TrEMBL record:
Entry protein name: Chromo domain-containing protein
Species annotation: Cryomyces antarcticus
Domain of life: Eukaryota
Signal sequence coordinates: none
InterPro entries for this protein: Gig2-like, IPNS-like_sf
Phylogenetic classification of the source organism: Eukaryota, Fungi, Dikarya, Ascomycota, Pezizomycotina
Length: 126
């Protein structure tokens, strides 16, 4: 897509993509960023020591193209973030909902373990 001028291709595991994802500098960057995560629960079944790969599609953007301007972004989930039966199960945003946003810790990982992140099995859901 887009239909009239394809720029995003459903390619995820080409040799070039695999080499890029396995590059030592990318792994080093991932390890650095993962150090921000921590857990209040010492028994939480989560590891911030083992990088995982997000397999994104291949995108070939034409120089100067302003029509299909998907800028840098983070896929941040969907409506499940705000659903009681979604992220509500882990009480991830409890402090924010209570008005105590200063106490919210975006890097606390154990509260994210019980969440339901794909309640609607949506295509492209994160």
């Amino acid at each position: 897509f887009p239909q009239d001028n394809p720029q995003v291709y459903e390619l995820y595991w080409s040799p070039s993509q695999i080499r890029a994802r396995a590059h030592p500098n990318l792994i080093k960057t991932q390890r650095f960023l993962m150090e921000f995560w921590h857990s209040k629960d010492p028994n939480a079944l989560i590891s911030s020591s083992h990088p995982t790969i997000y397999c994104d599609r291949l995108r070939m953007r034409l120089p100067g193209d302003a029509k299909f301007a998907l800028g840098p972004h983070v896929d941040g989930g969907s409506v499940e973030r705000w659903e009681e039966e979604g992220y509500g199960k882990g009480r991830v945003y409890e402090f924010i909902f209570q008005g105590n946003w200063e106490q919210y810790d975006p890097w606390e990982s154990s509260c994210r373990l019980p969440v339901v992140s794909d309640m609607y099995q949506g295509v492209g859901a994160c």
